[in-house]
Amino acid sequence: MSGIIDGRAAAAAVIDEVRAGTKALGALGTVPGLAVVLVGSDPASQTYVAAKGRMARECGFRSRQIDLPATVSQAELTSVIEALNADAAVHGILVQLPLPAPLDAAPILKAIRPEKDVDGLHPVNAGALASGDLDGGLLPCTPAGAMRLVRAVHGGDLSGLVAVVVGRSNLFGKPMGQLLLAANATVVMAHSRTRDLPGICRLADILVVAVGRAEMVRADWVKPGATVIDVGINRLPPEAGAVRGRLTGDVDFAGVRGQAGRITPVPGGVGPMTIAMLMANTLTAAQRAAAEAAAPAAEFTDRL
Ligand code: GUN
């Protein structure tokens, strides 16, 4: 077995499905619209946002990028979100994170209408997932993408398997734990205060790591044959003569590869899936908006 999980191929399959869905929706008169808001000029964020716009256009969406200076106020940013909420041509809104200080992301994410929250980070969408409703809301893109890779290896029912998630962020760790739990895995949430992290990781049949520490997970942290999903994207310091350091994950890929049954590379693993799932969410949001416009939910008017 090659052992390497090809995230690019899995993402391409999702994008093919999204393109077909977009074509079908277009025949009914709706073009999915995605608006990405970028605040400030962080180079990594600029790269990610450009990639999202490019992929949206490749899917046949209307794509808008709204660039705001790092000096934008909380109130100004909120009013940009409100305008996008009110724009019927925009089905998906994404605010690239992290926001520059002193902006507070939580109220901004809350200001996005949950139906347009293609990042799946609004408390309504997070709550739907936490209560086991995987179909009612929108799922966060990176966990949804990572879960598709897990399902490609193990199928949809993870009964009897131990899954260890390292990292407890709202963006990834918590929703990933919920998705694994919904698929019947026995889930351990590990984090920076966990004692004997290597020992906990060795319990995992499925080890998912999202901590932002280059190559932290070593071969002796991994149970032989385990599936390893590396969510980290870290840039190492440049080697002599090089301008930029290479990208690497949170897992020591070269060392762990021989120990793991299956492993995602960085780049080319979870990363492409994140963008693909963002496109899938935007299509879903547009499909729901079109269905709602065609047959609005009946209103109960006879209240007395
Ligand atoms: N920054 C890094 N990952 C993400 C993501 O999934 N969504 C948003 N909005 N910002 C990010």
Protein model, in words:
The chain is an alpha/beta fold and 304 residues long. The protein has 2 domains: 30-113, 3-Layer(aba) Sandwich (Rossmann fold); 141-271, Rossmann fold (3-Layer(aba) Sandwich), CATH 3.40.50.720. Helices cover 40% and strands 14% of the residues. The protein has helices at residues 7-27, 43-58, 74-86, 105-111, 123-130, 141-154, 173-182, 197-201, 253-256, 270-294; strands spanning 33-39, 62-68, 92-95, 162-166, 186-190, 206-209, 227-230, 234-235, 247-248, 262-263. Helix 6 packs parallel to helix 7 (173-182). It is globular and about 65 Å long. The chain binds guanine.
List keywords for this structure.
single chain; 304 residues; alpha/beta; Rossmann fold; 2 domains; five-stranded parallel sheet; three-stranded parallel sheet; 10 helices; 10 strands; globular; binds guanine
Overall geometric form: globular
**For this structure, what is the CATH homologous superfamily of the largest domain?**
NAD(P)-binding Rossmann-like Domain
- Integer count of domains: 2
Order of the strands making up the biggest sheet: 5-4-6-7-10
Mean pLDDT: 96
